[in-house]
Design goal:
The protein is α+β, with helices and mostly antiparallel strands and 284 residues long. It is 29% helix and 27% strand. Strands 7, 8, 9, 10, 11, 12, 13, 14 and 15 form a nine-stranded mixed β-sheet that branches. Helix 6 packs across helix 8. The longest helix is centred in the first third of the chain and has 14 residues. The model has no long low-confidence stretch (mean pLDDT 97). The protein binds 4'-deoxy-4'-aminopyridoxal-5'-phosphate (PMP).
């Protein structure tokens, strides 16, 4: 049985329980990271830890462990589960409080770490590309919840994802309050036009993805220009290529958006190149 790290101890997964008074449960009050393990190495671990602590700082959540202690606990959990290629979920909630909203009544953050395997989409979708639809659910306003904060509160994304599932699509495109493309429900968005790559900036309402940063670097090394700028629905529909990036999704092509076929209806050559180079880099 898998072992989960919970507040200082490795416990069997069916014994990993938290209080119903935890504000992570009552209000989705907390932060988290999803992290890959490739070839026994935790991929971009420092970047994930940094984002976790920065997210926590912004929401005034004190993580009771130092970065070094949390890193050690994560490594211990990966080892205990013999994960060579897998996925880590690192979660810090506000902790146990009372039934009111006041986060400062929660004296101790709750921390748990899961190390497991993940296959976000079936293999067929990686080969053939996915279909996406635009969500009518508008991405949270950046002045409500900063998009850089990876919080436990995913209802905005989940409502958009439900729209995609209702429409028989694989994923959804979320737009910000100004109508510009923000991100997919749990992934960043890229398009290719005339050999250049475009992606929305975080202020358009997207999480600054760690996979996104890796893919931008790889593209630049391949001498492909990467331009961060606001993207419209029109840009998506008329793109030569379209792909998503994320820790769990990795790099995946999109071949149809709101019934418009992208390019020739197959994941494009730049998408395929970046996907291949991404794995070479991740496994090196
Ligand atoms: N946007 C959202 C809303 C996410 O939850 C994620 C992570 N699943 C991403 C983008 C991609 O970020 P990363 O590459 O750091 O996983």
């Amino acid at each position: 049985m898998a072992k989960v790290w919970l507040d200082g101890q490795l416990v069997d997964e069916d014994q990993a329980k938290i209080s119903i008074f935890d504000h992570g449960v009552l209000y989705g009050d907390g932060v988290f990271e999803g992290i890959r393990v490739y070839n026994g190495k935790i991929f971009k671990f420092a970047e994930h830890l940094r984002r976790l602590y920065e997210s926590a700082k912004v929401i005034r959540l004190k993580i009771k462990l130092t970065v070094e202690e949390l890193a050690k606990a994560t490594e211990e959990t990966v080892r205990a589960n013999n994960i060579d290629d897998g996925y880590i979920r690192l979660v810090v909630t506000r902790g146990v409080g009372d039934l009111g909203l006041n986060p400062f009544f929660c004296k101790n953050s709750t921390i748990f770490i899961i190390a497991d395997h993940i296959q976000l989409y079936p293999e067929k979708l990686y080969k053939e590309g996915m279909k996406v639809v635009s969500a009518s659910t508008v991405r949270n306003h950046p002045q409500s919840i900063p998009p850089q904060v990876k919080s436990l509160n995913y209802l905005n994304n989940i409502l958009a994802k439900i729209e995609a599932l209702d429409a028989g699509a694989d994923e959804t495109i979320m737009y910000n309050h100004q109508g510009y493309v923000a991100e997919a429900s749990g992934d960043n968005i890229f398009i290719v036009k005339d050999g250049d790559i475009y992606t929305p900036p975080p202020q358009s309402g997207s999480l600054p993805g760690i996979t996104r940063a890796v893919v931008i670097n790889i593209a630049m090394q391949e001498n492909i220009e990467v331009i961060e700028r606001e993207i419209t629905r029109y840009d998506l529909y008329t793109a030569d290529e379209f792909f998503l990036t994320g820790t769990a999704a990795e790099v995946i092509g999109v071949v149809e958006a709101d019934s418009r076929v992208i390019g020739d209806g197959k994941p494009g050559p730049i998408t395929e190149l970046l996907r291949k180079k991404f794995f070479e880099y991740a496994r090196s």
